[in-house]
Amino acid sequence: MISRNHRILFEGLVVDLEEMEVKVGDKGWHTYQIVRHPGGVGVLPLHQDGTVSLIRQLRPAIDSYLLEIPAGRLNPGEDPAQCGMRELAEETGIIAGNLQSLGIIHPSPGVFDEVVHLFLATDLAQGEAFPEHYEDIEVVHIPLRDAVRMALDGSISDGKTAMALFRAAGR
Q: pTM here?
């Protein structure tokens, strides 16, 4: 990619907004605005009885509560698996003995540079959750097959959650 005239329009707590010109083949130079994000992790905890633990939490951007996998933002230089273990414990109290990669997703590559690393957590033990002070989280246990059905019918609309469910069910 050939680009020029990079400038930061906004520096925020979670994201930055960058504007640049990009040469698009023979189409010439075009202005793009990119939301820069440090990346994230999502973890699907799968219990031995075939249920998964999802969380229900408020998402102010869409003014709604969503059912999602436990997830969080990567710290600079942080290993995605370590971040996943931390977020899983913080949000649900679950400690995983085994974490397997379910690959990555690009949630909205037309606008965001964010990469989300997905994991399947097994060999689970229940501990005490310690969510962030601003998080109001309810942990919900659902059979994996029901959660996949909910992702298929749109009842679960979060992209990272649907993809983690589909990839886990396909194993």
A: 0.94
